[in-house]
Each structure stands twice: as C-alpha cells, then as structure tokens.
Amino acid sequence: MLRKIRITLAVIFFIGITLLFLDFTGTLHHWLGWMAKVQFLPAVLALNVVVILALVILTLFFGRIYCSVICPLGVMQDILARLRRKKNKYSYSKPISWLRYIMLGVMVLAIILGIASIVQLLAPYSSFGRIAQSLLQLIWMWGNNLLAGIAERSDSYTFYTVDVWLKSLPVLIIAIATLLIVGGLAIKNGRTYCNTICPVGTVLGFLARFSFFKVRFVTDKCKNCSACSKNCKASCIDYKTHSVDYSRCVACGNCISKCKFGALVYAHSVSPASGQVANNSRVEETQIDNGGGKTTTDKPDKGRRTFLLATALVTTAVIAQEKKKVDGGLAKIEEKKMPARKTPITPPGSLSAANMAKRCTGCQLCVSDCPNGVLRPSTSLISIMQPVMSYERGYCRPECTRCSEVCPTGAIKPITREEKAETRIGQAVVIQENCLMVEKGVDCGNCARHCPAGAIELVQIDESDENSPFVPSVDADRCIGCGACEHLCPVRPFSAIYVEGREVHSVRGER
Question: What is the pTM of this model?
C-alpha cells in the first residue's frame, strides 16, 4: 500500500511539473504553478519560509519522501531505473559521505558568492527543467505541428502550428549530458546521483536520520534472504546487520513490498514483542501488504493517514496557440541576428543583473513559457543558462507578465502590467549608418510608429537643411527597453536600432 501511494503521488507531481515546461500556451501555470514553487532549492532562494518549513516537517515525519515524490529529477531516475529489467539488481553499499558533503559545500559557497553556473549545474529541479525545455518541449511541439497538419486537412483548426527553434545550443548540450549522466547512473545503480552528488538530497538526508516514521526491521521474522537489499535502489539496506541508512532511504516502499516474510515495516518503532527493541514506546502500525499474501495487522496510525491524504491533483492540459501578427510586410524574422550588447537585458521584475545571478537556478521555466520568443538562455560562462532577452523573434509586450508569474525562485519577482509599462530594463540605441532613411532615403519610421512607450520620434539630422534626412531620436526617460523598435526594424541582418541592457532596472522618469 505504501508503495502504491508513493507511486501515485509521484506520477501526479511528475506529470504536472513536466506539463509546466511543455506548455507553450501559458495556461497551465494558473493551476500547476505551485508545483514548481514547492521545490526545495527554489523555495530556499525565494526565501519562502512556509514552503521550507513544510518540507522540513514533512521530512522529519516521513523521511526523504520529497526525493521520491516531489522532486522531478528523482522521479525521473526511478522511471529510467525500470529500463533495466534484471531482477534483484541492487546491493548494499557504504555511503560516500565525503563526496556528498563536498558537493553540498560547493553549492552553499556558490550561492553565497553568486556563482550561478555552479548552482544551476547542481540544482536537481533545474537539471530536470533543462531536459524538459531543451528536449521534451521540442518533441511536444513537433507532435503539435503534426496534429495541426492532420487537422488542417480535415478543415479543422483545433491545433495551430508553432515555430520550433533551438534557443541555445550550449544549454541543449548540457541537457543531453545531464540526461546521459543521471540516466546512466539510474539505469545501472538506481539512486547513485541522489545520494552522492545532489546537495538537496544531502540536506534532506541529514534531516531524515531523525524522522518519526522509518523503514524498520522485525528481526525475528527476517530470514536473511537479501530480497530487501537487492530491491533497494538507494543501496541503503544491509540485511546482514538488519540496518537501514536513513540518510539515503527515500521511503519508496520497494523493500516492504518485496519482503515475503513481513520482516520490514514503515513505522515509528517496532514492538519488543516482535523481536526488535528499537523503541520502548507502543506502536500502532498500519496494515501493510508485504507482497507475500500476508499482512502485519495493528491499529491504523494517524501519521500514515495524514500521509495518505497529503496531496491529490488531476490536470487536463489544453493545447492552443496564439497566432502572432506582424504588420508592415517585414523580412523574415529568422534573418535577423542578435547584436553584440555590452550589457545583457534581464526580464522586467528581475530588478537587476545581480538579483538574477543571486536567485536564478536556470530552470528554463520562464524561457519555455515566454509567448513572444524573447527569452533565451544566456551563453555567458558566468550567467550561462540564466534567461536573457533578445528581440530577433519578438519583443517584450508591455501587457505580458508571464515570466514573473511562473518564476519559482524570486529571480523574476511578480510584476503588474502597470508596473511593467513603467520599468526600464534597457534603452534603445540608434545606429545612423544602418538606417534606411539615411542610407537609402527610404521613408520608414517603423521604430517610431510601433514604440509602445512613445519614446521615439523622427528628427532631421540637420534642421537648417530642409532636405536633410530624418533619423530616429530616443527619449531616454521614456524608453523602457521593450525591443519593439529593434524587432520591427526592417534592416537585416543587424537592426539600425537596438536595445542596450541596464545593470539595475529603474522606473521611467528616474535616473
């Protein structure tokens, strides 16, 4: 029963979080966004005290069920581990404690020093996010386009085709490498990554040593058959000494379901009458099916009942697509290239580049959810995988606040439409020699016509000469850096106007 409950909840969380990264319609985060915000490291970086306390209390009561139920990377390892069909494939191994605490120390030091690239590589939720956004979302979108093509032939427009494009080659390579390393370890050795590398697993493992409910041996029933050790993917059960390393146990229930003799229970303690003097307090165990047709019977435990009723969520994903319209008969967006910006542009709500570096784990949720194709992972070594803005495929529409709504870490803080319309994330810069009005005498003015902030006007280069060409002039106090001018400029491959980022965001009218 314990194993079935754990698997059911794990499937719900895994599907829900995966759909968050696959959804390109921006609808699912209204119902499933909380799943990202209850992840351990994002909650720590967001200083979400309620979630942190809840996860700590959960671990102190039930052990490391976070790793086997809530963490998507942990559940992914369990799924991949099943690809190896060999039965009784595991065995007890001693913990590599020195490596675990070194990795935890590296993570803590990286957070303190603001070395975002190290934090992003070690964060389990972010590792899964990269895999989902870089690999699974591409497959999901190709599948959507296939359905759209089939539906169109039947004169149905239930589905719309979407642009499938590679947002970052380095992030794709890192995602593939992460999948190969974590997946390879999972298929071969089960939870090796969780119990030797993952800093979150180390922290929760320390707390799990003191958990109220644990997997315990009933020694007078144990036949030393080793079935528990051979089916423990955490390699934490030593059947010879009837001991369990609770810092590695994820309370998956595999050992209990495989034991044919009822020698393992998930309880606060085991009664002395059962042969194991673990605690003198009286035990009221829940009835547990041990896989051999027999059960241990006692009174139901209130703590287990609370666990059974912990979380239930069923979600239906609705696939839709927003058709984007660009006026003016411009050249294809794919032909435009990113300018060499001295200062990267961070999303509205991120406050500053420093705040982004301090809190962002590079999970790619905002990148996968951006409806305008503006956000993409940074390729800088210092801020690699963190979101930056680029306007080749769209611009940051003032009415859109989706990235601030989905961010689980506080790297992009929630922002209203009114606040966004007044937030300066960058400033447009004009390159006169690229402008069609200067070079070719074309009456363009696209940048001034489409500026949502009204920050651009056309002025003559030489006001004393009535034949002098007009050029765009940017009002720095009104420009918010949305990128509409850069995106809609018809000059290729580099626009005649582009946006330079701001290290620290400000409100219009402030310097």
Answer: 0.81
